[in-house]
Structure formats: structure tokens, C-alpha cells
User: Which sequence fits this backbone?
């Protein structure tokens, strides 16, 4: 890892996500997986199964971020168009690959590899495959874009074959301090003062409520571990003053 910032963009593809029929968990999984690798998520988008939108979003994200992760749209059905869109985003051809077919044969007998399932072996030219130990249908890496399945268990299974391809940057650390019985407004001014005192540290406040209690959790993030320890002391003193 180096001391510079390495960023990632995440593109979640699928009409089912936008309609609310399917609740996404992939964003959280990928972001948490990237954090210890020293990669910060800069933006995430949920987009429809629309070829023009997918193609343009992939192209834009590839230019803006060090790494891009897409989930969804690489299955066997007619609306699984992500592979074609990735190819279009980089002006590449796309075709069925023998090595991808070999992976599918680990799951399917020859007679089961119908035209629909063979669609999952169509890979953009020059892309490297991403192993899929769950259902065998591979993902693939095209330049700085990693294209993965939308099914959470399958997507998670692909991550180990990506880790060695990531060159991480500066790790971001965090500390949490929780205060019960106060609201965000009570701490706004002194919190801003703490953030001004410690350059390079960002502080967020996250309220919580239940039937018996309200409160706030303060989360400070930064690259300097020693400085964060001082911020934690300052936040703890702030909580003591307010409670």
C-alpha cells in the first residue's frame, strides 16, 4: 500500500433494485471489503437495465476512479446486457470464450449448456476472468472495471479472486464515541470546533432513537492514527460536557 488516495466507484445494475423488489446489500459488502485494502468508495449509483445508461456510466466511472465494480446483469437471460455494455464502453468486441465455457462445464453437463447458459461465457475482448466458486459462471475484469454477479452470495464468492489485483492506497482509520440523551443540534457547534482543530480528520454525527432513548454516535475518520486518538479524547470530553 502507498500513502496516496485510491478510489473506487460502484455501479449496481438492475431494474429490480430501482423498483424496490430487491434490496441491495452488495454496496455495503464491497465497501467494507475495500476499506482494509486502502481503497475509498467515492460514489455508488443504482441504474436501470438500459444499455445506453450502463455504457455511459461505466465509461464515466472508469475515467474518474482507480477501480470500478459493477454488479448485476451477467446472467443467462435476454435482459442480462452488462457484458455487451462493458465491451461498448471501451469499444471492444465480445465473443464466447473457451476458458469461460470450461468454467461453466464444472457445473453443467454438455447437454445442459444451452444457448442461454452459453451467454454467460461471452466476454469482452482482452478481459481477464474472475473465478466464481459458487455457480462457476465467471465475472471478468476489463481494464480497471470488475464486472460481477448481482446475487450477493455469488458476488461475495468472486471477491477473493480480485484482491490480488488491487493496489491499495492510504488506509483510513475511524473512532466512534456514543452519547445517550442528546441530539445532533446540541453538539453541532463544539463538534465543528473539534474538526477545525484537527486538520485532515472528518467527523460525522449519526442520531439514533428508540422507545426509551435518543442519542448520537460521533464517527471520526482520518489517516493519522495518533491524531484520531486525540480526536477520540476530545469527543469523549465533549460528550461528558453535554451529558
Assistant:
Amino acid at each position: 500500500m502507498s500513502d496516496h488516495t485510491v478510489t473506487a466507484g460502484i455501479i449496481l445494475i438492475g431494474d429490480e433494485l430501482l423498483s424496490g423488489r430487491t434490496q441491495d446489500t452488495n454496496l455495503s459488502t464491497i465497501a467494507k471489503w475495500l476499506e482494509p485494502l486502502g481503497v475509498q468508495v467515492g460514489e455508488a449509483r443504482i441504474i436501470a437495465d438500459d444499455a445506453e445508461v450502463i455504457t455511459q456510466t461505466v465509461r464515466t466511472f472508469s475515467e474518474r476512479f482507480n477501480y470500478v465494480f459493477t454488479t448485476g446483469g451477467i446472467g443467462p437471460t435476454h435482459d442480462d446486457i452488462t457484458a455487451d455494455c462493458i465491451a461498448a464502453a471501451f469499444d471492444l468486441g465480445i465473443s464466447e470464450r473457451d476458458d469461460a465455457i470450461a468454467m461453466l462445464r464444472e457445473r453443467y453437463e454438455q447437454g445442459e449448456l444451452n444457448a442461454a447458459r452459453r451467454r454467460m461465457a461471452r466476454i469482452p475482448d482482452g478481459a481477464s476472468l474472475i473465478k466464481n466458486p459458487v455457480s462457476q459462471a465467471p465475472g471478468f475484469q476489463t481494464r480497471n472495471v470488475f464486472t460481477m454477479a448481482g446475487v450477493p452470495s455469488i458476488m461475495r464468492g468472486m471477491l477473493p479472486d480480485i484482491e490480488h489485483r488491487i493496489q491499495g492506497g492510504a488506509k483510513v482509520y475511524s473512532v466512534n464515541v456514543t452519547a445517550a440523551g442528546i441530539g445532533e443540534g446540541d453538539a453541532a457547534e463544539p463538534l465543528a470546533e473539534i474538526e477545525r482543530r484537527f486538520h485532515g480528520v472528518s467527523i460525522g454525527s449519526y442520531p439514533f432513537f428508540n422507545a426509551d432513548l435518543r442519542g448520537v454516535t460521533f464517527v471520526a475518520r482520518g489517516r493519522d492514527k495518533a491524531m484520531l486518538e486525540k480526536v477520540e479524547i476530545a469527543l469523549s470530553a465533549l460528550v461528558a460536557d453535554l451529558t
In short: The chain has two domains: 6-163, 173-242. The mean pLDDT is 93.
